[in-house]
Structure formats: structure tokens, C-alpha cells
Design brief:
By secondary structure, the chain is of the alpha+beta class. Helix content is 21%, strand content 35%. The longest helix has 19 residues, at 57-75.
Length: 114
């Protein structure tokens, strides 16, 4: 399963943005959103290191609410469908870790607070 991570743009340098979500920062490419007028403070969905869509506050909060449900299910040891939540999403509520591939960290390892 592939997931996008809603993140807030903190800084823009050309087609690269420094983005933050829940105290975790990552660089992301804005190349796919050239048609959008993006600015510091905007929310974007990050997938595999790329901002793929601009988001409203409401949409970003809805996504995080759903992820929080997944985190809670994982913490309780519950599965999703036929897969265990950890296998399906590699999300860890206790450490705010999002597995490689979800954050588009390109070899930077799991998303971890800096």
C-alpha cells in the first residue's frame, strides 16, 4: 500500500521545499506542481519525495485522522484486512516513524524527529 503524507511547506528554494509534519522535516520536489502557486505555509501531499497535490487544512487533517486510526490499531495489535497494520503501512505511532517509501526520503531512512 502506498500512502501520501500531508506536510506543510516551511521553505521553498526553486523546485525544492523543506516540509514539516508532526515535528518531522523532509525535502520534497515541487516539480510536479509547477502549475500551482505554492508558498510557505501551504499544505501538500508528499509521495515518494514529490509534492503531488496542494491540500486544504481540512483535507490534511482528515488524512492525519485516518492515519491516527491506523496508528491506534497497530498499537492495539489489530490487523487491517488480511495484513497486519505494520506490514501494510509501516507506520509507528510511538516514534512518529513512517517507513521508507511513504515519505519519499530517498535513502534517508525512516522519518524521525530531528
Amino acid at each position: 500500500m502506498c500512502l501520501g503524507v500531508p506536510m506543510r511547506i516551511m521553505e521553498i528554494n526553486g523546485f525544492t521545499a523543506r516540509c514539516e509534519a508532526r515535528g518531522i522535516e523532509r525535502k520534497a520536489s515541487l516539480f510536479l506542481l509547477q502549475h500551482e502557486q505554492l508558498q510557505v505555509g501551504d499544505l501538500v501531499m508528499i509521495h515518494v519525495g514529490n509534492a503531488i497535490q496542494k491540500m486544504s487544512e481540512e483535507d490534511a487533517q482528515t488524512a492525519w485522522d485516518l492515519y491516527d486510526e491506523i496508528f491506534a490499531a497497530e498499537a492495539a495489535g489489530l490487523g487491517v484486512g488480511t495484513n497486519n497494520v505494520e506490514e501494510a503501512t509501516d507506520l509507528d505511532v510511538g516514534t512518529n516513524r513512517v517507513g521508507a517509501g511513504l515519505s519519499g526520503d530517498r535513502g534517508q531512512g525512516p522519518l524521525q524527529p530531528k
